[in-house]
Amino acid sequence: MPAIRSAAGPSKSSTRGKIKGYDVELTLEHRTEGDTTVLDVAGEVDVYTAPKLREKLVELVSDGHYNVVVDMTKVEFLDSTGLGVLVGGLKRVRSHNGSLELVCNQERILKIFRITGLTKVFPIHDTLEEALS
């Protein structure tokens, strides 16, 4: 099935900062594919950047997007703050009878979900196509 984009096209936001001399960046883009909103996340999701992800998820739910797929295939780092934001997003969409599913195929990120037991909470897919089917 071909991708269906919103009339405005993808929406993109980015946050960048420096921590101990290192660049830290989080890029967020969302688009609509059918009745699902895909949120592409790239970069590091940590205590410094997670608030931007939280804001985006709150914005999407406030705008009526209750079926969300978070594509994390370009996430380089995820800490407990980022996990908390994802759990909060899941609670928000579920309060509207929606769903939040993840796309993640990187072992280092998947390991975090396994260790925390969140593989039992989130549907996690290897590919975006699998998540959208």
Description:
The chain has 133 residues and is an alpha/beta fold. The protein has one domain: STAS domain (Transcription Regulator spoIIAA, 2-Layer Sandwich). The chain contains 4 helices and 6 strands, in the order E-E-E-H-E-H-E-H-E-H. The chain has helices at 50-62, 80-94, 107-116, 128-132; strands at 11-19, 22-33, 36-45, 67-78, 99-103, 124-125. The longest helix has 15 residues, at 80-94. The chain is globular and about 30 Å long. Residues 1-8 and 14-21 have low confidence and may be disordered.
Question: What does the secondary structure layout of this molecule look like, with pairings?
Answer:
Blueprint: E1 11-19, E2 22-33, E3 36-45, H1 50-62, E4 67-78, H2 80-94, E5 99-103, H3 107-116, E6 124-125, H4 128-132
Main traits of this protein?
single chain, alpha/beta, Transcription Regulator spoIIAA, 4 helices, 6 strands, globular, disordered N terminus
Helical segment count: 4
Tell me the β content: 35-45%
**CATH architecture verdict:** 2-Layer Sandwich
How are helices and strands ordered from N to C? EEEHEHEHEH
Structural shape: globular
Number of strands: 6
Radius of gyration: 14 Å
Major β-sheet, in short? 6 strands, mixed
